[in-house]
Amino acid sequence: MPTRLLGPGTNQVDRDFFNDGIWTLGHEPRAEQVWDNLRRNQKTSAAMEAQFRAIIEAVGENPEREGLVRTPLRAAKAMQYLTQGYEQDINEIVNGAIFESENDQMVIVRHIEMYSLCEHHLLPFIGKCHVAYLPDGKVIGLSKIPRIVDMFARRLQIQENLTKQIGECVQNVTGAKGVAVVIEAKHLCAMMRGVGKQNSDMVTSVMLGRFREDSRTRQEFLDLIRS
Ligand SMILES: Nc1nc2c(ncn2[C@@H]2O[C@H](COP(=O)(O)OP(=O)(O)OP(=O)(O)O)[C@@H](O)[C@H]2O)c(=O)[nH]1
Ligand SMILES: [Zn+2]
């Protein structure tokens, strides 16, 4: 467990990063993975922390004021968490969870919560993602599809590209006869600033293979995600 691996001279900041290292891996990691993560996080975070401090000053605030003293560190950690997809690797995420199956019927994982940051304003876009595929002798572990969604969502993105990346990744990993992805999301950059539209959302889709070629397959998917 984290506290057992940390040495006696470890301070609170180290503990915070260490615990984040555990959190980002999402499962019980090996000790050396944890230390690698810790070192990488500390290095990136020191630079990011200085930049967040500069932003706080630039908006006219005093970074030494009590409520803001640890804010650059917190903001750096939050930004690292929200962009951890750059550090992740598809093979580690799938972890070999591809299983032989004779089932060739549509598999859908729907209503996957999704949080990303738009690459134009660094503001969140939030919504849900539906992913379907038509197996061709192989199925993928259920949890791996939301993990794939998270990996790409935790990068700076536009929604159209995120949708495509998820679709192509699921296609490559499963070798499916077809993959469909729909994302419905609200963009804070169009809500809390800019055009200021609170009730609109953006819907993007990617249809590959059988979903693109066969309108009945596509329609079945669309009906099932709305049912
Ligand atoms: N297509 C697409 N556009 C996005 C996405 N996220 C944000 N945008 C848009 O990116 C555009 C950037 O336009 P700019 O004119 O360069 O930036 P801006 O002056 O901040 O634009 P406004 O938001 O209209 O105030 C805006 O229209 C945003 O709404 C996305 O995921 N997909
Ligand atoms: Zn934006």
Question: What does this 3D model show about the protein?
Answer:
The chain is built from 9 helices and 7 strands. By secondary structure, it is α+β, with helices and mostly antiparallel strands. It folds into 2 domains: 2-82, no CATH class; 96-226, GTP Cyclohydrolase I, domain 2, CATH 3.30.1130. It has a 5-stranded mixed β-sheet with strand order 5-2-3-6-7, sandwiched between helices. A two-stranded antiparallel sheet has the order 1-4. Bound molecules: guanosine-5'-triphosphate and zinc ion. Zinc ion binds next to loops. Residues 118, 120-121, 123, 187, 189 line the site of zinc ion.
Topology at a glance:
Blueprint: H1 2-5, H2 12-25, H3 31-58, H4 71-82, H5 90-94, E1 98-100, E2 107-118, E3 124-134, E4 138-140, H6 144-153, E5 156-157, H7 159-174, E6 178-187, E7 202-209, H8 210-213, H9 215-226
Parallel strand pairs: 2-5
Antiparallel strand pairs: 1-4, 2-3, 3-6, 6-7
Helix pairs in contact: 2-3, 3-4, 6-7
The site of zinc ion has 6 residues, from loops.
Tally of contiguous helical segments: 9
The total domain count is: 2
Beta-strand content: 15-25%
CATH class of the largest domain: Alpha Beta
Shape: flat
Q: Using the CA coordinates, give the radius of gyration.
A: 21 Å
pLDDT averaged over residues: 88
| Percent in helix | 40-55%
Structural class by secondary-structure content: alpha+beta
